[in-house]
Every structure is written in structure tokens, then in C-alpha cells.
Amino acid sequence: MYEDLKDKVAIITGAGSEYGIGQGIARRLSQEGAHVVLSDLQPANSPDRPDEESYLHTVVKEIEASGGRALALYADVTKNDQILAMVEQTKKAFGRIDILINNAGAFPGANTTEDMEERAWDITVDVSAKGAFLCSKAVIPYLKELDGGGRIVNIASIAGKTGFPTYGPYCAAKGALILLTQTMARELGGQAITVNAVCPGNVDTLMGRKEAEIIAKEQGIGLEEAMLVLGEEAALGRMAVPEDIANVVTYLCSNQASFITGQSINVCGGIEFH
Ligand code: NAD
């Protein structure tokens, strides 16, 4: 559908979660012929979870089995040395970098500002905001090497546009990411590099289920019922699936979106409208 994405090279952070948005984006970009680097935290090296069992490798094998090119690389997006190594290995493996998807995110749990632990703030803001900053900083020189058309897509949230009680660090982190998106769009527009954010609402992933668990506890209902409650928040009456987000990200990476930059596009089924 987007022929210009063939042989483009994309790095997707936070792509190691089963059913996660990151793996969905990697699969979707690969369907368009892009070469994808799936990146995530290194799993703890314990005998019951050996390296090969990382979900990153499962996706890589599936993409390769269907004729695509993919690579799994571990990098903590809050650690600059690991990011630089990931970017260098990508360049070495594929010769170029066209697309960066800052997808890694953390949600250590809900609490009021009064009761939220300082550590929850640090993790949430470090992964979403600082992580996107450091990864973008490392990739921008490679995007500038291209003959125009580099892409950065940040996975923010509707929680970055409107505050939600008990979500202070998460809202602050995603709000920061939206403004970083606008800033980088203005800085890089002269090189025809676009920078956009996608703002999901409630997505059926491990993180989405964590949110459903909070609702289940609050309302004394089961997890599946809580997922329906989250779905009903949307005008379209359901939670998103990773493909819903991946479709919009893929469009933003394509030439068809070459005149869109600095935008924060809601993909929430109609919960947020600005
Ligand atoms: P997920 O928890 O399934 O995936 C997040 C991934 O980020 C995990 O694989 C995790 O290991 C990785 N990660 C965490 N810290 C990291 C670090 N320091 N370095 C590298 N990777 C790290 O969640 P998801 O729903 O797939 O979330 C993907 C993105 O979408 C996140 O940025 C999240 O905030 C955002 N989002 C999700 C929802 C939702 O309802 N699920 C809604 C809005 C926005």
C-alpha cells in the first residue's frame, strides 16, 4: 500500500511486549517492506527466562519467515550508551536509518499526587520523555544523511492532552513528549524530516490490562468487565488493538504524510477531541 516504505529502515523501541503496540508497529511496517529493528529492555538473565525467549526474537523469526528483514537489539532507552550502541548496530546491519518510533513507555501504577512515590515519577518520565529525547538525539544525524524524508513518530497518549486523576507522572511524561514532538518538528522541517506523535486512548495490551485491573479493583468487577468499561469510554465503543495504532503510524512514516509534522494525532476511537 505504501510502496515508498520498501527497504526503509525503522527502529522501534519498546517492541518486546507480547500483544504490545511496538510489535504491532514492527509487523505493520514490515508488511510494507521496511526493515525493522525491534528493541526493548534485556530480559533478566535467569535460567527460567533465557535470552532466546525474549518476545523480540519471536517477532523477528516470524518476520523473517514471511520474507522480511528484522533485527532484535536490547537497549534501555534511559541509558545513552545503550542507545548509541543500538543505533550503531542498526547502521552496521542495514546501512541507513530512515524511521524512529519512540514507543517505549512505562506505567508503574495509579496514585494521587499526594501519595505517588518519587520513583514512579522518575521511571515514567525517564522512559517516555527522556527516552524519546535520547533516542531522537542519537538518530537525527542519520536522518539528516538521507535525501529528505526521515521520520520520527512518538507514541504519546490522550493522557498527554488532558489530565487524569491519579495519572500525574504519566500525563506529565506524555505532555512533555507532545511538546518535544512540536519542537523537533520545527527544528528538522528544513531537512524534510517530519516528527509527529500518535496519541492512543485505551489499547488492549499488557499496559492497557494493567489499567483495567485498577478499574476492576475500584469497581469490584472482573478484568473482562473492566475492559468493556474502558471500551465504552470511546465513541466507537471498544478498546483499540495494536493494529489500530500501527496503521496510523505507518501512514505517518509514508510519503503520503510528507506535509504533516508536529501533530499529535488521537487514535482513541473518540475519547479525546483536541
Ligand atoms: P507495553 O507495556 O505492552 O509495552 C511497553 C514496552 O516498553 C515494554 O515492552 C517495556 O519493556 C518497554 N520499556 C519499558 N521501559 C523501557 C526502557 N527503559 N527501555 C526500553 N524499553 C522499555 O505497553 P503498550 O501498551 O504496548 O505501550 C506502548 C506505548 O503506547 C507506550 O509508550 C505507552 O505509554 C503508550 N500508550 C499505551 C496505551 C494503552 O492503553 N496500552 C495508551 C496510550 C499510550
Compact summary:
This protein has 274 residues and is of the alpha/beta class. Helix content is 45%, strand content 13%. The protein contains eight helices and seven strands, in the order βαβαβαβαβαβαααβ.
Question: What is the averaged pLDDT score?
Answer: 96
- Strand tally is 7
Q: H/E element string?
A: EHEHEHEHEHEHHHE
The CATH class of the largest domain is identified as Alpha Beta
Unreliable spans are: none
Going by CATH, the architecture of the largest domain would be 3-Layer(aba) Sandwich
What is the spatial order of strands in the main beta sheet?
3-2-1-4-5-6-7
What is the share of helical residues? 40-55%
Structural class: alpha/beta
Q: How many strands, what sense, and barrel or not for the largest sheet?
A: 7 strands, parallel
- The CATH topology of the largest domain turns out to be Rossmann fold
Indicate the overall shape: globular
Q: What are the bound molecules? A: nicotinamide-adenine-dinucleotide
**Cα-to-Cα separation, first versus last residue:** 29 Å
**How many domains, in number, for the residues?**
2
Number of helices: 8
Structural commentary:
- With 274 residues, the chain is of the alpha/beta class.
- It has 2 domains: 226 residues, Rossmann fold (3-Layer(aba) Sandwich), CATH 3.40.50; 37 residues, no CATH class.
- The protein is built from 8 helices and 7 strands; from the N terminus they run E-H-E-H-E-H-E-H-E-H-E-H-H-H-E.
- Bound molecules: nicotinamide-adenine-dinucleotide (NAD).
- Nicotinamide-adenine-dinucleotide binds next to helix 1, helix 4 and helix 6.
